[in-house]
Specification:
By secondary structure, this protein is an alpha/beta fold. The chain has two domains: 2-217, 3-Layer(aba) Sandwich (Rossmann fold); 221-285, Peptidase S8 propeptide/proteinase inhibitor I9 (Alpha-Beta Plaits). It has helices at residues 42-49, 71-77, 93-103, 110-118, 132-144, 162-177, 189-195, 213-217, 231-244, 267-274, 289-297, and strands at residues 2-14, 17-27, 31-35, 57-62, 65-66, 78-81, 150-154, 181-186, 198-203, 206-212, 221-228, 247-252, 257-263, 279-285. It has a six-stranded mixed sheet, sandwiched between helices. It has a four-stranded antiparallel sheet with strand order 2-1-4-5, covered by helices on one side. It has a four-stranded antiparallel sheet with strand order 12-13-11-14. Strand 12 and strand 13 (257-263) form a beta hairpin. Helix 3 (93-103) packs parallel to helix 5 (132-144). It starts with a strand and ends in a 27-residue tail after the last helix.
């Protein structure tokens, strides 16, 4: 059952900024990862899902209700964690929690107390003087306090220390097991990889790839790094490889090393060939979500991007640093 749907969403702010023909859906009980760097279009998409902005084309919906037309009704039962947090500075954290509970008609605070303890939040202090990490914890607590069935999370662990990030990841796994439907927008590879069932990568406001996370984790294409014991063995392999047809993707003469790409179906053939040489070591290089992501964002690899992405500009950074 589809819970959250984005259909051909377009919002053009000019000068290549905005989102363009974005489509994806999140199924009930699924954690869906939305991955991209600063300026890619993640938050713009989320603002439309939340009903904060009206699409120029296309639409977004939650539980069959149009996000723009039914924004107030949707937001009553939705859990939302914004990327940028702004609290009323005149309140304490406790007063803010009480205000949110009243707005939601929440009487039983047991789940809120559980969240406060889990995330080690002391809400008694003034919001004006709270650290960024403490404010992020408060935002997490108030997003989850009414135990919503659908959650939209924009850079949820930004400002949290590594220990608290791990606690949050484990919490998301628990919520998933409880059947929650979650859209998780993040620039942190480990966070997306550890929690998400499916993932979309966005670049320049367009989706460049959408895939099942397990398909990437169990990728049939493997990369091996090999170092030969002597220069003579290395040179013999290089000279003989044309007839052996191994896919050598990198050769380092000074280190006597090669990197070879192999499909699972050809592993036996590969091992048979390599056994004829005297090796110092052979090791598999694991293919990661970050490796796959960089196929679309590495300036030297734009030809690998699909959906016509190679025709767009190459102003993106080679690292992800921050949300949209």
């Amino acid at each position: 059952m589809t819970v959250l749907k984005v259909e051909h969403l377009t919002k053009d702010y000019g000068h290549g900024r905005g989102v363009f023909d974005v489509s994806f859906n999140v199924e009930k009980g699924e954690v869906y990862g939305f991955l991209g760097p600063n300026g890619a279009g993640k938050t713009t998409t989320i603002r439309h899902i939340m009903g904060f902005s009206k699409p120029q084309k296309g639409q977004t919906s939650i539980n069959g209700m149009d996000s723009w037309k039914n924004a107030s009704e949707i937001q009553k039962t939705l859990g939302y964690l914004p990327g940028e947090i702004a609290f009323p500075e005149s309140l304490t954290g406790t007063e803010f929690i009480e205000m949110m509970a009243e707005l939601r008609g929440l009487k039983d605070m047991s789940h809120t107390n559980y969240l406060t303890q889990k995330f080690e939040l002391d809400p008694s202090g003034s919001l004006k003087r709270m650290s960024l990490g403490m404010k992020r914890k408060l935002a997490i607590v108030t997003a989850f306090m009414h135990d919503p069935e659908v959650l939209v999370l924009d850079e949820p662990t930004s400002g949290l220390d590594p220990i608290m990030q791990n606690i949050f990841i484990e919490f998301i796994k628990e919520e998933k097991e409880r059947g929650k439907t979650i859209l998780l927008s993040s620039h942190i590879f480990s966070e997306i990889d550890a929690t998400c069932d499916r993932i979309s990568i966005i670049k320049d406001g367009r989706l460049v790839s959408s895939f099942v996370a397990d398909d990437l984790r169990h990728n049939e294409d493997k990369t091996f790094e090999i170092e030969f014991s002597t220069k003579e063995e290395f040179e013999r392999f290089v000279n003989e490889n044309n007839s052996k047809e191994l896919d050598v993707i990198k050769t380092e003469f000074d280190k006597k090393q090669v990197k070879i790409s192999i499909n699972d179906a050809d592993i036996n053939k590969f091992m048979s060939i390599i056994s004829d040489y005297d090796l110092k070591f052979i090791s598999e290089i694991k293919f990661t979500l970050e490796d796959y992501f960089m196929k679309f964002y590495d300036k030297n690899n734009d030809s690998n991007a699909d959906n016509g992405d190679s025709n767009r500009n190459n102003d993106d950074k080679n690292t992800i640093n921050g949300g949209v």
